[in-house]
Every structure is written in C-alpha cells, then in structure tokens.
C-alpha cells in the first residue's frame, strides 16, 4: 500500500495530530516516514543564492525534527528527516517527487477564504499539484 509517507511538519502543536495518525498508519503498512519541515523565513528563502549560514530558527527547526525522529524511531518506525528551505508548498511538492513518496500527510487549520488568502493555503496548493494521495487532518 504505502512504502514512504511524507509528513509535513510545522513545528507547532498541530504536528501531534498528524504524527499520531501517521505513526499508526506506518506501523500498519510498514511504511517509512519522511518528516519534512520547510523553513520559509528570509534567510531560508535566500539561503543558496546568498550563501548564508543557517539562521537560529533553522537550527531550532532541525533540532525539532531530530527530536521527532528519535521519538518515532523509539516506537519502532523507520524515519528520515529533511529541512527544506523556501516556499512551503513548492518545497513539499518537490521533495515528494524527489524522494518518491506514496502519500503526503499534513495537518490543516480549517481556515476559510480570507484566512486562506492571508495565510497561503499550503495544503490546498499541494493537493492540487501532486498525483499521489494527500491525507489532510484538521489540527486539534
């Protein structure tokens, strides 16, 4: 069924909603998890072109991913992590293609119209641009 599941990580409390669901799914199917957080601050968006050092925010994000990885591996799951940089939707789609994932899992916040315009609607862009299943769970 699923061999590799990309889990979009926000570095927020919403992560627990998607992680608890996907961890159970991975146990059931034997899938590997790929936890991806997209750093999208100024330094992250210009990291390569300006040859910048990682910002404190990016270092914190990388440490957060490592903690999640250790926790999930302690539960017997195979977990890889990746800190991408740039526009979240673009980077999630690119990573899904590059890493040949079978499913993208992400939490949503239940915004409506104006909030989606203001906040970007990453989940909406992702689900319209990929050809693999996308699992969306509303954050608790």
Descriptive notes:
The protein is of the alpha/beta class and 140 residues long. The chain has a single domain (4-138), classed as HUPs (Rossmann fold), CATH 3.40.50. Helix content is 46%, strand content 23%. The protein has six helices and five strands; from the N terminus they run βαβααβαβααβ. The chain has helices at 14-29, 42-45, 56-74, 88-98, 114-119, 122-129; strands spanning 4-9, 32-39, 79-85, 103-108, 134-138. It has a five-stranded parallel β-sheet, with helices on both faces. Helix 1 links the parallel strand 1 and strand 2. It is globular.
Characteristics:
alpha/beta, 140 residues, Rossmann fold
